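Field log, afternoon session.

UNIT: design team B
ACTIVITY: writing a sequence onto a fixed backbone
BACKBONE:
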């Protein structure tokens, strides 16, 4: 078996196409590494782990928000778009981090949260201090209420985190927040808002940021000038570009303006849209006249199932070709139950594993029973499958350690607003945001010199980077070997199914340059096609590929 011992050269920093097949590592900064021992991850912590990221051979890191924030939604409630939270660092430290990342051949993508600010943003404070109808209020979405003295909200809309989507301010008006009350939605028909975000994009681009991940990209444009529909009416409206709230056609006018900003840099800055839209409408976000790339969460939402995986891959490659973009693959991120855990839950009729993960969390991780070993075997197989696909792969911090979701975060330690706003319905996303275990023991398992802002379970030690270092069978070693080989083998964006080797439980494809991937989704060993075995997610069983495993080969 090939075990890449030398680091393959990082791609050229000037290559404008770098993003097309990049392996992007998502850092949730407050939970990655704590440099100053205050229990919260920070930029100094990230810098200290650049050797680790370099050894992992990722092409880029994407940082979830690190901006000043009251953390009503884990930082997705931004007080100031052009600064660093003092608990996380300073702008000077940010510049230093960018320089270090670039020196290591790693690009940096930052998260932009344009749908809403925090309620502590200076514009929202000014809006509250100004009268109804003022230009300060016009940057957000304020409306008069209904009923006597306007005491009822303008509509019955519910927020995505649960509870009403309108909150009343002291003078009696109401403002719209599609997420938490601390996250007032901007009015994107206001040119001041548009100009300000272009300024923010330039601010970070000038500091050397290579690209942007756009939060809730399908929500910015709204048409609320009309008689407002009820929630039931809103839900029933087609999402065909004319919906008053989501995925409106005119949102792309905003991204065309952003494209001009991106293209003003050499190489052009890139962007990837977080857009939860109908699959056939994703291409607009991925257009080279818009953001350029869009997340596809189809594999994340699928079961560990050969037929589903094949259909999703074929469909998304065709879609990407249509938009001239490349596709994206994601199994885990800061919003969902980690995939090692999802794949270890017994299937239940009518539920995808992603939804079932939530169900399991609600029970505190007891019901249904988790098969942690099976979950991890499948996750390793799925990851190798993903890393062999054309397109960019997004890896969420900790998945390279095979980390499971932390199911039993105590209620009093929980931070996610979805937990507080939907008691008993959604336990929230804290279980995938628990600070990483770097060491097998010691304070906060090496996360920092002291504690961690979310409690880590005792089992974290055996999943730590330290425990896995040098172990040829560890998940960390698997990710390192896979990412190194991927760099070496990656060429064009073709994929051809090897139909002779495929059946209801096995998927095999080649990248047409001799690189072959075979994944066994079943439980009995299967024969491998002829060729040199380069890497496997599990030891071969008498030369055959066992169940829940993937092999990479160089075709004979
Ligand atoms: C996105 C983020 C999520 C956040 C929400 C509101 O979906 O990924 O973490 O809560 O937007 O900003």
């Amino acid at each position: 078996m090939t075990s890449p011992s030398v680091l393959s050269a990082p791609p050229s920093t000037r290559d404008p196409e770098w993003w097309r097949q990049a392996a992007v590592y998502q850092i949730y900064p407050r939970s990655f590494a704590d440099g100053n021992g205050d229990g919260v991850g920070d930029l100094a912590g990230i810098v200290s782990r650049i050797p680790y990221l370099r050894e992992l051979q990722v092409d880029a890191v994407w940082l979830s928000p690190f901006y000043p924030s009251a953390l009503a939604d884990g930082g997705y409630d931004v007080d100031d778009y052009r600064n660093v939270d003092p608990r996380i660092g300073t702008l000077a430290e940010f510049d230093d981090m960018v320089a270090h990342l670039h020196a290591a051949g790693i690009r940096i993508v930052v998260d932009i949260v344009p749908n809403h600010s925090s309620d502590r943003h200076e514009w929202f404070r000014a809006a509250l201090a100004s009268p109804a109808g003022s230009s300060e209020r016009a940057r957000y979405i304020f409306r008069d209420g209904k009923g006597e003295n306007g005491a009822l909200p303008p509509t019955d809309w519910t927020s995505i985190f649960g509870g009403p989507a309108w909150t009343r301010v002291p003078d009696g008006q109401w403002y719209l927040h599609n997420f938490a009350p601390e996250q007032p939605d901007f009015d994107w028909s206001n040119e001041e808002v548009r100009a300000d975000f272009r300024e923010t994009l330039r601010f970070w681009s000038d500091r050397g940021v290579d690209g942007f991940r756009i939060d809730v990209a399908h929500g910015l444009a709204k048409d609320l000038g009309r008689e407002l529909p009820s929630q039931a009416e809103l839900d029933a409206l087609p999402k065909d570009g004319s919906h008053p709230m989501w995925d409106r056609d005119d949102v792309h006018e905003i991204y065309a303006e952003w494209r001009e900003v991106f293209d003003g840099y050499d190489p052009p800055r890139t962007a990837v849209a977080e857009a939860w839209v109908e699959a056939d409408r994703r291409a607009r976000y991925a257009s080279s006249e818009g953001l350029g790339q869009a997340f596809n969460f189809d594999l994340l939402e699928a079961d560990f199932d050969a037929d589903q995986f094949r259909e999703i891959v074929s469909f998304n490659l065709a879609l990407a070709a249509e938009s001239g973009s490349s596709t994206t693959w994601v199994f885990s991120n800061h919003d969902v139950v980690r995939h090692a855990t999802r794949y270890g839950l017994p299937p239940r009729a009518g539920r995808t594993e992603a939804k079932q993960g939530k169900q399991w969390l609600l029970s505190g991780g007891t019901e249904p029973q988790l098969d942690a070993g099976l979950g991890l075997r499948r996750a390793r197989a799925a990851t190798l499958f993903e890393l062999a696909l054309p397109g960019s792969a997004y890896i969420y911090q900790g998945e390279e350690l095979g980390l499971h979701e932390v199911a039993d975060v105590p209620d009093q330690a929980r931070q996610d607003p979805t937990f507080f706003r939907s008691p008993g319905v959604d336990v929230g996303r804290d279980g995938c945001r628990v600070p990483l275990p770097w060491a097998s023991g010691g304070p906060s398992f090496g996360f920092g010199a002291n504690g961690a802002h979310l409690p880590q379970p005792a089992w974290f030690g055996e999943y730590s980077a330290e425990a896995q270092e040098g172990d040829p069978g560890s998940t960390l070693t698997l990710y390192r070997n896979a990412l190194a080989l991927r760099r070496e083998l990656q060429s064009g964006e073709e994929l051809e199914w090897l139909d002779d080797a495929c059946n209801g439980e096995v998927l095999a494809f080649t990248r047409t340059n001799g690189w072959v991937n075979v994944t066994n989704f079943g439980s009995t060993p299967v024969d491998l096609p002829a060729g040199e075995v380069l890497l496997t997610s599990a030891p071969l069983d008498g030369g055959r590929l066992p169940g829940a495993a993937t092999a990479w080969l160089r075709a004979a």
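LOG NOTE: The first helix runs from residue 43 to 48.
NEXT ACTIVITY: expression trials, pending approval
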